[in-house]
Amino acid sequence: MSRRLFRAPLTWVAVAVLGVGAAFGLYWFQPWKVVTDNQVDEQLSAVGTTPAEASGTTPTDAPGVTPTGATPAGSPTSTRPVVVSRGEFVSHEHDTSGTARIVRTADGRHRLELVGLDTSNGPDLRVWLSDQQVRTGRAGWHVFDDGRRAELGRLKGNRGDQAYAVPPGTDLAELTSVTIWCQRFAVSFGAASLVPAG
Fold this sequence. Notes:
The protein is of the alpha+beta class and about 200 residues long. The chain has two domains: about 1-35; about 35-50 and about 80-195, Superoxide dismutase, copper/zinc binding domain (Immunoglobulin-like, Sandwich), CATH 2.60.40.200. The protein is built from three helices and ten strands. A hairpin with a 5-residue loop joins β3 (about 95-105) and β4 (about 110-120). It is elongated, with a radius of gyration of 23 Å. The termini are far apart.
């Protein structure tokens, strides 16, 4: 009786449907990413961390800092990168930590740098600049696709240091937060408010 049942066309259809469903579920949720990490260690900008460094008067013997002479760091002719704004990540759907900072490079362009990022891996993760306010807890999970945003690309890795070019013309006065956004499930893994450096 069991052999007849196994040979029935409906049984094969059911097996095929279950197989396709399982394959789709694996593709959609990608559960293996929960237990795997992608480490990225890109070279970040050598920027100052003290008021003296921010004003362009950094001692030339400071370790890891490029001398600038008497040129103010914020001037168009500055020869070193300058931090424009920064913020610490807060956790949303997944535990997330690290620092986000907008850096103006010596040639006047901007880039977002993620310093010491540590979050979960996941499917279809993107890096967005947004005009939405960062909220803690579940209230902040789904707000970032409600307003204006600029996508900087797919997340390169869920851990480590990484940088993303900010497209020319991006309104950094309005887009004052950054989120690690899961496009597939429309949820923020973590986000940071970008506060002007001073």
